[in-house]
Amino acid sequence: MKKFLIALVCAVVTIGASAQGKLTVNAGFLFPSTFNATVGYEHSLSYGKAVEVFGEMGDHWKTREGQFWKGYYWDGGILYKLRLVRSKNGMLRFRFGPEFGAVERKFFLGIEGGFEYNYVFQNGWEFSLIQKNNVNFIHGDTFRNGLLIGLKIPF
């Protein structure tokens, strides 16, 4: 039994070390008058490439009193990230992929594209600066562009 438990612990540690998964948390502002927050899972591939599955929620705030949460939206999607430049502790990637969601009870499909710069700290955490562009179809909220900052936490 003791050998079995030791083998099981070694297997779990080995699988956990090779998983290369990261929890991503980002927040920022998009044009026009939009606050955006994103949570996702990123899986690293070879040569600095990655795939991310994400969900996000945002709000088009109005300038009138009590209108902040009237224009919210949510969406989710998958992004492919292609490495453009690699430095000692940083990496610049081009990111693109499809997304789907709803805004004010209307569903939409869209495309997201943009750039992402990551800086890696000694403990493995990453700081992210993301420039994103969304083009959405089937409703009036067509374009969203802006900057997000965030963290990537390995697990």
SSE topology sketch:
Layout: H1 2-18, E1 21-31, E2 34-44, E3 50-60, E4 72-86, E5 90-103, E6 106-120, E7 126-137, E8 143-154
Antiparallel strand pairs: 1-2, 1-8, 2-3, 3-4, 4-5, 5-6, 6-7, 7-8
Q: Unreliable stretches, pLDDT < 50, 5 or more residues? A: 11-15
- Work out the strand percent: over 45%
How would you write the strand order of the largest sheet? 1-2-3-4-5-6-7-8
SSE order, one letter for each helix or strand: HEEEEEEEE
Gyration radius, in Å: 19 Å
Helix fraction, binned, reads: 10-25%
Strands, count = 8
Tally of helical segments? 1
Distance between the termini: 28 Å
What is the averaged pLDDT score?
Answer: 84
Shape: elongated
SSE class: mainly beta
Report the major sheet.
Answer: 8 strands, antiparallel, barrel
How would you describe what is shown here?
- Helix content is 11%, strand content 65%.
- A hairpin with a 3-residue loop joins strand 4 (72-86) and strand 5.
- The protein has 1 helix and 8 strands.
- Residues 11-15 have low confidence and may be disordered.
- The protein has 155 residues and is mainly beta.
- It has an 8-stranded antiparallel barrel with strand order 1-2-3-4-5-6-7-8.
- It starts with a helix and ends with a strand.
Protein traits:
155 residues, mainly beta, 8-stranded antiparallel barrel, 1 helix, 8 strands, 11% helix, elongated
In summary, what is this structure?
This protein has 155 residues and is mainly beta.
